[in-house]
Amino acid sequence: MSEQFEPVIVGFLCNWCSYRAADLAGTARIHYAPNMRPIRVMCSGRIDPQFVLKALREGADGVMIAGCHPGECHYVSGNIKALRRFILLKAMLRQFGVEEARVQLVWASASEGIILAAKVNKMTEEIRALGPLNWQETVLGGNNGYKVAQAALVPEEV
Amino acid sequence: MKKFAYFPGCSLEKLAQSYNNSSVETTRLLGVELQELEDWNCCGATTYFHVDQLLAYTLVARNLAMAEKEGLDLVAPCSACYKNAYFTNKYIKEDPDLAEHINYALEEDDLQFNGTINVHHVIEIFVNEIGVEKIKSKITNPLEGLRVAPYYGCQIVRPKHNGTDAENPHFFEELVSAMGADTVDYPERLRCCGASLIMTSRHAALNMVRTLLQSAVDCETNVIATACPLCQVNLECYQPQVNEEFGTNFNMPVLYFTQLLGLAMGLPPKKVGIGSELVSAAPIFDKYLKRTVR
Amino acid sequence: MSEEQKHPEQNERVGVYICHCGTNIANVVDVEDVAEWAGKQPNVEIAREYKFMCSSLGQDLIEEDIREKGLTRVVVSSCSPHMHEKTFRTACERGGLNPFLFEMANIREHDSWITNDKVAATQKAKALTNAAIERVVHHQPLEQLPVEINPNTLVVGGGIAGITAALELANGGHHVYLVEREPSIGGHMAQLDKTFPTLDCSACILTPKMVDAGQHPNITLLTWSEVEKVDGYIGNFTVSVRKKARYINEDHCTGCGICIEKCPFKVIDDVFEVGMGERKVVYRPFPQAVPKFPVIDKENCVYFQRGKCKACQIFCPTEPNSIDFEQEDEILSISVGNIILATGFQLFDTAKIPQYGYGRLPNVFTSLEFERMVNASGPTDGKIVLRDKQTEPKTVAIIHCVGSRDENYHKYCSKICCMYSLKFAHLVHERIPDADVYNCYIDMRTPGKGYEEFYHRLLEEGTHFIRGKVAEVTNAARIPEEKGKLIVQVEDTLIGRQRRIPVDMVLLSPAMEAQPDSKEISQLFKMGCDFDGFFTERHPKLDPVATMTEGIFIAGACQGPKDVPDSVAQGAAASARVAGLINIGTVMMEPVRASINQDDCSGCRICNNMCPYNAIIFHEDRHVSEVITALCQGCGTCVAACPSGIISGAHFTNIQLLSQIEGILWDVRPAKEKVPA
Lengths: 158, 294, 677
Prior knowledge:
The complex is a heterotrimer of chains A (158), B (294) and C (677).
Chain A: E1 9-14, H1 18-27, E2 36-41, H2 49-57, E3 62-67, H3 78-96, E4 103-107, H4 113-130, H5 135-140, H6 144-153
Parallel strand pairs in A: 1-2, 1-3, 3-4
Chain B: E1 2-6, H1 17-29, E2 32-36, H2 48-51, H3 53-70, E3 74-76, H4 79-94, H5 96-106, E4 119-121, H6 122-130, H7 132-138, E5 147-150, H8 171-178, E6 182-183, H9 197-200, H10 202-218, E7 223-226, H11 229-237, H12 239-246, E8 254-256, H13 257-264, H14 282-289
Parallel strand pairs in B: 1-2, 1-3, 3-4, 5-6, 5-7, 7-8
Chain C: H1 3-6, E1 14-19, H2 31-38, E2 44-50, H3 56-69, E3 73-78, H4 81-95, E4 102-106, H5 108-112, H6 118-136, E5 145-148, E6 153-156, H7 160-171, E7 176-179, E8 194-195, E9 200-201, H8 202-215, E10 219-222, E11 225-233, E12 236-243, H9 258-262, E13 266-269, E14 277-280, E15 282-283, E16 295-296, H10 302-306, H11 311-315, E17 330-336, E18 338-341, E19 345-347, E20 364-366, H12 367-374, E21 395-402, H13 417-431, E22 436-441, H14 451-461, E23 464-467, E24 470-474, E25 486-492, E26 497-503, E27 505-510, E28 512-514, H15 518-524, E29 552-554, H16 564-584, E30 586-589, E31 594-596, H17 606-610, E32 616-619, E33 624-627, H18 637-641, E34 647-649, H19 654-664
Helix pairs in contact in C: 2-6, 3-4, 6-19, 7-8, 7-16, 12-13, 13-14
């Protein structure tokens, strides 16, 4: 029996909006992919890009960063800072050869359980289609030199 | 001289020749060249989009692609052509999937459309590119005392686009004032002329035309100015039918705004296609223009 | 090496408790398996599963284990920490453990309730539990921060919600500063004629409250004033209020009104009379204004503009003279413990919908204009007349939902418009008995005590109700009967026909919308507002008057469209919340705060601009940055930004989060030695 690949996604959810959105999705018994494993932070602005890299390095196939909608941050503008870091991080991951879909930033307010659930489903499917990340091979070991070099050859707009 | 790719559209070939001539002549006098696209094709008009959307987009995209090849923005004098070109351009820019489909078809013709140009209605060229002030300075025979009703029709303002105020636009009024004419505060200026409904639901369409004409008469209009060949046809050619159907007695001249502008700029009436109307504009010209057009 | 990395982690004794939550968790997650597995993890002293961990027996279990097995850390895998984190922290505390040496894994909302897949759910439960175990060993004992509450309160906005909040607190013996930007308190309610559905006179019920607020010994009334700056945090806000110059000395003025009488100049009153009437240049917005002191409108005052007149000063009978042309704006600094925002609403600008003709067609009126018109003390002495101020309309159309329930403007239902539109219909019937009134509505929404009954009353009064959104109001007549009338073009969806209704007068019922500066207000007070500009409550159902910022409460229409009774209820509710805090005297704050290791800080100042609360100061002398703990709200943005990693966010430290990441990926981690953090 060939088993379907189940990606592991680490979710960094801000305490005020997206963690509550995930709570609400549960309370409303919305069924969605159990592949996202949430970690609570007070604000998406607390998410150090290192955490994302750490998760990928430790075996996650994807990372979801979730915060309050722009303008609705509990801490005024932490989510905007998260967005800035995310954009820079994306540019870096591209050079590593990590596909764009693997690290996603989403906004979900405390009332948007259904939206968060849909986003988790969508992301799970996208990563399922990409297959395991396999950081060791992709970025560090094996023929990583090839992939990194290839990524470097393609001029990318940032 | 600023140059645009000019897409006259089918109507302007024959029925609305006067619109075509007057547009080209007036823009030239105002320092804008309308360079007609070679080998343009029909825009799909009002009907084709409902038959096959993708093919209709492709039809329009071919014209856009040819304009893009010239490196020129596209100008259409007909409101329907304009609307089709405007929205096709917008959708292709927004939807890479649609663009891919269309470009696949355009390849047959060695064409490709990348969405780098903009689409304008000819009235926008006068209002935005040339500007009312410049037009004013070129008026030699102001249409003083002529009461002109600016009739927008629906498609140059709707659906909402280009940031124009769809419910309360005023650029046509400004243009009419620039000609020196009296602008009629025409309440039905945005209402539909009936368009192709005349084919399918004659009575309803005639009733719509009647409403527009009645309102113009009530506002003591001398002439209705239009910016669309279909509006012009519905308003002018169907007046006898309206009169017959509703027992009215309309005899309202309907001219293209470019014709009026041409006259105001001193062009000979013939050059702007005056003389081929079904409802003669001669009485007005006798009254208001004779003293200026010698 | 920072403090946290030196922390020992290998010899903690962790107690792990897996909750069944009845069947809520146990039906999907194999709790026995998770518990057994958890018991084998490093550092875990004991792992148990139990039916209801939050029950007193479950909590006892934790307490006993702490005492008997010497647990140094506790993990509970159950529901959301937003539900029971406090419960279990308290249990730990009772057992003698610092409550912050506890961590919770959410295996209900985030796991058992979102899937039926038992294998996946059990795997996820293990991951979440393991993450908590690996995190908790790095926890540090923390103490909650006690904050004393200043018993004074600031209420911003002197409408009915603000007045109610201020009076409730003042009557309870607490001092209140009531700030209002207009010259008088009263707000929109003071402009209304009657209130639905009881039709009692708005002024009659409002003015006694205004007078109470104006005379209350516990209320400092600051009208013609605006808040400029807010510093501090719950318990200790320092607020700067700009008291705009009235050019009237309030100490001497008796409010006799002779200056108003003698002022030779009139201007259109755009605020209180919404352009329907005039006022003098030195004016009180309305006769019953509180405070009674007038204001000189500097922009229009002939003395200020041209240097002569001074009629008001010449005729002022007080000794010394109360008119003070030299008066300047004053900045007051006030200290308060809590703030209630009751900044109200504005009405949607109906000119934004040009097809309804407001501003173009003279006999199209807005609701507030009509309110002033029907008000006996209003510009027409209560007579319903057209813009010419003499013709009585025989037919009136009232258009509901102008700017609300409309994709182009506001999607939300503005809640009060149906009711006040019905009230208008009633007032027209009452004043002009033979008039025809057409109410064009989308849906009739009358939820409220006595509201539906009011609707039925209107049905019996003979109002014509047309269900349909009005397309256009025009003066373009098509048939002789329409000549000289306003024609309302509407699809009557109940009979399925387009109708053109010729009327004499059209009333537009515009949506309530947020104040134009609500975004700035929310930034000033550092709390949130939604896309429509309404302030965001802490919880839409269970905490409607608190905000996400401690010590800041909201009441009335600044939170969303609301009628008078709802605004009053919220005003009172907000004051009850504040009174509770004042009575306790101190609040405990989460110790989730950032701190900068002063020895290691390189003084790069990157963190300085990160802080949304300006809680990070830079010591020029020592060239290091420091977090003011009292101002820090604990978001951690600076922690993530510090390039040297020497800012520590208590309870969300790097090592805690990195360990949590490792723990959550227990089953997929590459086989190798642990990567140093």
